[in-house]
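Appendix B, record 7
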Amino acid sequence: MKRFHVHVGVDNLDASIAFYSGLFGQEPSVVKPDYAKWMLEDPRVNFAISHKQTAAKGIEHLGLQVEDERELAEVYGRLEAAGRPVLEEGATNCCYARSEKSWIADPDGVVWEAFLTHGEATFYGAGPDMAAVASVNAAADACCAPSAATAKPACC
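Structure tokens (predicted):
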């Protein structure tokens, strides 16, 4: 069963943890010095926040988290069918987790990820440059636009 994912950049991690814990009626399942995550069942969502000096505040990206390889292949097929360049990040460490990921952006530059988590990691990781994912996808209709294959992830 798939789970909706939302990642929000915040200014004050402690204040945001307090706010979202009250909003969701539960404490986060993961808390790190720069990151927190709630794995909610109602609604079924993986909601994460992070505080990074270089990241924009607000919604950083949205995504679909899957539970097995079959669902990952299904969602990857949907990314391909969406008709936009896909950045296949592959195996990576991001958000204190080991995952298999691909990225896409909608025509207006909203960044989405599709991923399968394989376990925990001891460090945050960097992930791809969200602006690069958005710009590659936003330029998909332009003549001579760079392909997603030329976009390189910032980590791994």
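Remarks on this record: The radius of gyration is 15 Å. Residues 2 and 66 are 5 Å apart (CA to CA).
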